[in-house]
Amino acid sequence: MTHRASGFASPTRPVIVDAPQALLDLTRAQAPHWPEAEGADDAAHVTALTADDGSVRFTASSYAAPDVVLPPGLLAANGLIGTVIGAFTAADPDWICLHAAAVALGHGERRGLTVLLGDTMAGKSTLAMALAAGGARLWCDDRLPLSRDMQGLALGLRPKLRLPLPDSAPSRFATLVEARGMTREGSMVYLALEEEMQATFGEVLRVRRLITLERSGQAQAPKLTPGSIGETVKRLVPVTFAPHLDPMTRLTRLRQVATACECRHLAYADSFEAAEFLIREPDE
Q1: DSSP state, 234?
Q2: Residue 50 and residue 213: Cα distance in Å, rounded?
Q3: CATH match for 96-280 among 3.40.1000, 3.30.450, 1.20.120, 3.40.50
Q4: Which pLDDT score, from 0 to 100, does residue 160 have?
Q5: pLDDT for 1
Q6: For the chain, which residues make up each domain, given as ranges?
Q7: Which of these, 100, 105, 200, lies nearest to 141 by C-alpha position?
């Protein structure tokens, strides 16, 4: 399988990827605004190791990438994007990456990123997209690179949703997904959003609020309560990518992140009710 090198720009150093052309094309389609970069002496390198059946795993020069074998297609492209993010994050101690969703909310001096923290299947992507459909601006639905000075970096990656949509999805939301659904693979649909709805690569905004999510299977009205710094840090630990920081340095950094933000806890049952609640919530 023929490989070629392609450079990805980043806030730390270029990342040079050696991968099959078909995989690079899929990856660029999922990250349409990610600028290309030339090689440099300090560049990080990512290599795709492909098997005869087309499956792939990745190695990186700046950190030990997970030894996970991915099938060909969008899953592999998503894995490559994750490895590129890991490579540029691990190259600079000023950066970490959160496995989280984020949207821009608020007005004037109160405008900033609201970061949604939750376990897998906690509803981060659906809630973030519901917020974007309601007037917030999507920053990310899965990965948020975060600088030491609390600036969240948008990468402009195609957001994805799991199908079928919840029965509670408003018709206008279903229409949006149908109109903007660019690519489907299995139960996942990848959306191509306009710039006013989603931040593009390179935009930065300060993180103002961290919300830990608790989704209930029983009907209940959304309830937003103050969250403790300690509990927020506890929820940040498993969703933080920072292999270049030793455990104590990482914990100190996460406590600094939580201390610099408003910490909240959101209990909810329905993503669309929760989105309406957060959008109409007055700035404090």
Answers
A1: H
A2: 37
A3: 3.40.50
A4: 95
A5: 66
A6: 3-92, 96-280
A7: 100
